[in-house]
Amino acid sequence: MSVPVIEVRDVGRTFMISSGFMRPKRPLHAVNGVDLAIEPGEVMALVGESGCGKTTLARMMMGLLSPSGGEILLDGKPIAGWNRSVIARAVQPIFQDPYSSLNPRKTVGSIITLPLRVQGAAEPEGWTRRAEEIMELVGLPRRLFNAYPNQLSGGQRQRVAIARALINRPKMVICDEPTSALDVSVQSQILNLLQDLRAELGLTYLLISHNLAVVEHIATRAAVMYLGRIVEQNAADVLFSAPRHPYTRALLASVLTPDPGLGVPDTHLGASYPNPLELPTGCTFHPRCADAMDDCARRIPVHTVVPGGHVTCHLHQNGGGSDAGT
Length: 326
Fold this sequence. Notes:
The protein is of the alpha/beta class. It has nine helices and 14 strands. The chain starts with 5 loop residues before the first strand and ends with a strand.
């Protein structure tokens, strides 16, 4: 069995948040006991509502934040204490907004070669050639090497961001909503490009997205996150065709359909999101869950292994669950 490109073991991250003048700070558990393994060549999608901890988890994988607990392994080796540039050579991000992620005062060539300079790549005399080769690979004409970001379209800017991420041939790319800021007509082009690059360069992706249509199109596996925990994980096609967790079913029910007769979907989740500083006892999803039982408010569910993955829900346990804290 292959070693995961990156593995997260019981990782948590807690921030101390000010609660007002002359009041003590309170803990916010942004990520809480997450286990995740991403195999070589996979496209692992991480989905969930805003504020559930997706980006915090990604920042820890990139070495930009240190976990409060647990460990992160890269190629089977713990990254704690590693130099950030070493991690950056293996894990690179593609950000959501190509309009703000590119320095408007730098040329395309300078932006793409930046990782080579920062990470101390060898043979500086060959950097321009490498940049031009990666530009061609992502569909950018070489004549844009000396252009500035404000001279490019949104799709071209995102291709520059992709080229910058790939110039040093990383093992894994973290795509944080890579198409949400683009026109619909351009989104499919970028998604298809990411698929082609994955096949050609042997890349592994972590895809963070709210757009379930994008996840269904590109992901091989998917993990659903709620209030800092992963509540369900499985192969993407299985998760979409037979979701087991009530939260996953609610997310899928929220997708708009092209049939105008169906109207706006009702997820039955309510309009309010729980206060992450005051987490519900037991299963944190139970106040919004249509299938909640008495036990859900009292006991924390544990991972239950299901074919191809796992789900964290009392509906799939035989009286299991650890006692909820008070």
